[in-house]
Each structure stands twice: as C-alpha cells, then as structure tokens.
Amino acid sequence: MCAGTTTIRPARPDDAPVLAALAGELGYPTTANEVAARLEDPDLEVLVAEAGGEVVAWVDIADRTTLYGGRNAEIQGLVITAARGRSGVALALVEAAEAWARARGIDAIRVRSRSDREGARAFYLGLGFDIVKSQTVFEKRL
Q1: Residue 109 half-sphere exposure toward CB, CA atoms < 13 A
Q2: Could you give the CA distance from residue 66 to residue 134 in angstroms, rounded to a whole number?
Q3: How far lies 139's CA from each of 96, 122, 136, 142, in Å?
Q4: Is 139 within a domain?
Q5: What confidence tier does 85 reach under pLDDT thresholds 50, 70, 90?
Q6: Is the N or the C terminus of the chain less surrounded, counting Cβ atoms within 10 Å?
Q7: Which residue range is the domain that position 66 belongs to?
Q8: Which helix (DSSP H) or strand (DSSP E) does residue 110 occupy?
C-alpha cells in the first residue's frame, strides 16, 4: 500500500532496531532484541511506513476478543518520527490497520491513548473514532 511516496508494509525482523528506537520516542523504551521477539507473535500485526528506504513510523494491531465486548481490532501503538508529523503517514497507517481488521471480518477498531496526549486525541476524533470509555490502567509486575 502506498501513501504518496510512503509505502506501508508488514514489519520485518531487520526493522527491529528502528522500531525499538521509535518506541523509545513515544516513551516506551525497549530493545531491538525484544522487538524482534515480539514480531514473531502470531496474534500481533505490525505495519511500517517506509519513505526513501527508511522506516519512519509503525502501527501494531491485535485481534481481540473479550467476553463482555466481543471481537474487535485494537491499535496498540502508533509511532511516527517527529520529522514526518502531519504528513499523512499516521493516517495511512490507521487506514492500513482498518483494512487489516476488515480483511479478518472484524467490524470495530479501538485505540487507547494516554489522556495527556491531546494531539492523539484530536487525531483519532478527526478520523471518526468516538470516545467510549475513560479508565485507569493498573499493572502489577510479575
């Protein structure tokens, strides 16, 4: 899939270093080895935006089923280099995620975003996403 001069494609293991660096830009530091291992998860789809031979953004999507809400796709992360902001790359990745979900017969896509990410909030609302819930996320390290 192409978005202008940007190509959207599935992530490859050799993309792991740049995917890890971009995750760090979002505030989620990780290593290339950890990313490479996660790319092997069959329940996770990672798409990248490539421009000029370089990966400039990624989105990861999962097929989710919950007892209370049924089946949906969830955008778990979307990261774009600061230099590519407002270039249409994020939109192209969301559209690719939606196409991925439709191809699997999924009729809803969700995304969670930290409440302090006002730009992300405006972006998703502008794409027709609705706010359906506010919540607090709890975590216990095991």
Answers
A1: 22
A2: 17
A3: 30, 27, 10, 9
A4: no
A5: low
A6: C
A7: 2-126
A8: strand 109-111
DSSP 88: S
Angle at 111 (CA atoms; ends 11, 67), nearest 5 degrees: 105
Residue 135 included in any domain: no
**Segments of 33-108 assigned E as strands:** 44-51, 54-66, 70-80
Q: How far is CA 134 from CA 14, 46, 59, 111, in A?
A: 37, 26, 22, 12
How does DSSP classify residue 37? H
Q: Total domain count for the chain?
A: 1
pLDDT tens for each residue of 13-55: 999 999 999 999 888 899 999 999 999 998 899 999 998 889 9
Is 133 contained in some domain? Answer: no
Structural domain contains residue 132: no
How many other C-beta atoms can be found within 10 angstroms of the C-beta atom of residue 39? 18
| 122 phi and psi angles, rounded to 5 deg | -65, -40
CA distance 127 to 117: 16
